[in-house]
Specification:
With about 270 residues, this protein is of the alpha/beta class. It has two domains: about 70 residues, membrane protein fhac (Ubiquitin-like (UB roll)), CATH 3.10.20; about 140 residues, Rossmann fold (3-Layer(aba) Sandwich). It contains seven helices and twelve strands. The strands form two sheets. The protein has a nine-stranded mixed sheet with strand order 6-5-4-7-8-9-10-11-12, covered by helices on one side. It has a three-stranded mixed sheet with strand order 1-3-2, with helices on one face. The longest helix has 28 residues.
């Protein structure tokens, strides 16, 4: 009996081996077209699933913009930035053209640096760095705020007494547009001079008049104290002389037309006659 069982097992194993060999031979003998068809069907299924997913994302209310987060603003209000971005709440987040938003916001001269990104599923984050107003410039009988680079930031509808920034007048410009740059070199020289004066003598001077490209007059608010300067280095080089001159004027109650710092190694107090 044992021998009979062993023989049956051996026969069964041989039959299984033959069947496996037949299957392998049948696979090898399959035409190349069938193999290609299987691969194509697989990729078609993957593509269909992917299309379905993206179709859902692009058309589902789940991905509609619900919130715009604005970071880094100080001068500009969130409402101003949002309006300038032209972003529509309720629009699908993937249908929003980020480059269009960035280009629209870059038209605002107060914005120096900018980044706009999507936060899936329904938020937009606008991160920006604003320019800083460095001076008030008088051009064509109007007041404008300007950055230190000379970018005209905005028009100001106030009298000069309401300004907390250095006031520059005398530029040979009749008109200028918001967002344009003041290219005149005397603007940058004037700004440097008045800023140096503020460092050395805080709150003593508030305006500078451009008399010529190399001739400037810094003044106090009521125009009773004037200092004539040719270049910024004179403020630093003659700081001690300037302090002594101001002390002399105050102590002796002198009526002064202006202090002239344009001489090489000295300055002159020009007294009113």
């Amino acid at each position: 009996m044992i021998n009979d069982n062993e023989e049956e097992k051996e026969l069964e194993e041989e039959e299984e081996k033959k069947e496996l060999e037949k299957e392998e031979e049948s696979k090898k003998s399959q035409p190349l077209g069938i193999e290609i068809s299987k691969i194509l069907i697989f990729y078609l299924i993957i593509g269909f699933l992917g299309w379905g997913f993206f179709n859902f994302m692009f058309n589902s209310k789940f991905c509609n913009i619900e919130e715009v987060i604005i970071k880094g603003n100080s001068y500009l209000s969130e409402n101003e930035i949002f309006a300038k971005s032209q972003i529509k709440l309720g629009k699908n987040i993937f249908k929003l053209d980020l480059n269009k938003v960035i280009n629209s916001l870059k038209e605002e001269p107060w914005i120096r640096e900018l980044e706009v990104k999507r936060v899936i599923p329904n938020k937009i984050i606008i991160s920006l760095e604003e320019r800083k107003a460095a001076a008030i410039v008088y051009i064509g009988e109007e007041y404008f705020s300007s950055s230190k680079e000379g970018i005209v930031l905005s028009k100001i509808d106030k009298t000069k007494r309401g300004f907390n920034l250095p006031f520059i007048l005398g530029l040979k410009i009749t008109e200028i547009k918001i967002g344009k740059k003041i290219d005149e070199t005397e603007f940058r020289t004037a700004l440097e001079i008045i800023n140096l004066a503020e460092v050395i003598l805080p709150k003593k001077f508030c305006m500078i008049k451009i008399l010529a490209p190399d001739d400037f007059m810094i003044c106090n608010e009521d125009d009773t104290l004037k200092v004539r300067v040719n270049k910024p280095e004179e403020i630093i080089k003659k700081e001690k002389l300037l302090r002594e001159a101001l002390e002399k004027i105050e102590n002796e109650k002198l009526l002064v037309e202006y202090i002239d710092m344009s001489f090489k190694d000295s300055l002159i107090i020009k007294v009113k006659k």
